[in-house]
């Protein structure tokens, strides 16, 4: 199965090189694409130093737009499946073979990273918000998804075709699950470590919550044939 890796990155110069070194142990370098989402540091140079494909946005567009650009690259290059992971080192590339094995053995459409939320590993408010958003997305998708906020995932490219994704920021990751779930895509899960790197600003968090709620309400009331 020809598998690509998509890494959205914003100001990840300090971490990206180490992430790419590990990714390339399992995936050929020409199957790896970094999307530099308007970074103000040398993220693009870090990607180029590891001889992987780098798509650079001149301005920050958001993680959703970065993922969509990555999916378009994967389709153009004949990838049969794609793995998404972050460039900050929170997603351990050593799990790439496990994601691939689950997809091949289970013959599923998507493998979703799932974390164990434990007090002390993540602040309680984050645990609560993740549990609530996972319940909301699961309800809209018609499938139980234990962790809808983990960005470490693998998809068959065939199920992403004509998915009509509209999100631009972090809400796109939940939108994908709702649209795929309501299309009866088969999900399986891969346990991944819980890594917490600190709190985002409250302004960004409230903005992301607002966009998530608007997306969720829109899809709740969208007829399945229009997904």
The biggest beta sheet reads: 7 strands, mixed
What is the domain tally?
1
The proportion of residues forming helix, as a percent range, comes to: 40-55%
Q: Could you give the count of β-strands?
A: 7
Which spans of ≥5 residues are poorly predicted at pLDDT below 50? 198-203
Give the count of helical stretches. 8
SSE succession: EHEHEHEHEHEHHEH
- CATH topology, anyone? Spore Coat Polysaccharide Biosynthesis Protein SpsA, Chain A
Overall pLDDT metric: 89
Q: How far apart are the termini?
A: 27 Å
Q: For the largest sheet, list the strands in their spatial order.
A: 3-2-1-4-6-5-7
Can you characterise this structure?
By secondary structure, the chain is α/β, with parallel strands linked by helices. The protein has a single domain (3-226), classed as Spore Coat Polysaccharide Biosynthesis Protein SpsA, Chain A. Helix content is 42%, strand content 16%. The protein is built from eight helices and seven strands. The chain has helices spanning 13-23, 43-49, 63-76, 96-106, 124-141, 157-160, 171-182, 202-220, and strands spanning 3-9, 32-37, 53-57, 81-84, 110-114, 153-156, 187-191. A seven-stranded mixed β-sheet has the order 3-2-1-4-6-5-7, sandwiched between helices. Helix 2 links the parallel strand 2 and strand 3. The longest helix is centred in the C-terminal third of the chain and has 19 residues, at 202-220. It is globular. It starts with a strand and ends in a 7-residue tail after the last helix. The model is unreliable at 198-203 (pLDDT under 50).
């Amino acid at each position: 199965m020809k598998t690509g890796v998509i890494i959205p990155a914003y100001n990840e110069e300090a971490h990206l090189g180490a992430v790419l070194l590990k990714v390339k142990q399992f995936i050929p370098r020409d199957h790896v694409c970094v999307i530099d989402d308007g970074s103000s540091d040398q993220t693009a140079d870090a990607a180029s130093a590891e001889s992987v494909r780098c798509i650079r946005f001149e301005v920050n567009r958001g993680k959703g737009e970065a993922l969509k650009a990555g999916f378009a690259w994967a389709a153009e290059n004949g990838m049969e499946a794609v793995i998404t992971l972050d460039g900050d080192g929170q997603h351990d590339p050593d799990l790439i073979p496990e994601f691939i094995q689950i997809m091949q053995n289970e013959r599923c459409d998507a493998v979703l990273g799932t974390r164990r939320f434990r007090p002390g590993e993540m602040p309680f408010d984050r645990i609560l918000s993740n549990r609530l958003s996972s319940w909301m997305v699961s309800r809209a998708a018609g499938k139980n998804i234990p962790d809808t906020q983990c960005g470490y995932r693998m998809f068959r490219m065939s199920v992403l075709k004509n998915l009509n994704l509209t999100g631009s920021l972090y809400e796109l990751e939940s939108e994908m699950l709702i649209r795929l779930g309501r299309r009866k895509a088969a999900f399986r899960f891969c346990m991944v470590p819980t890594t917490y790197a600190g709190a985002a600003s409250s302004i960004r968090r409230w903005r992301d919550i607002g966009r998530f709620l608007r997306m969720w309400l829109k899809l709740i009331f969208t007829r399945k044939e229009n997904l």
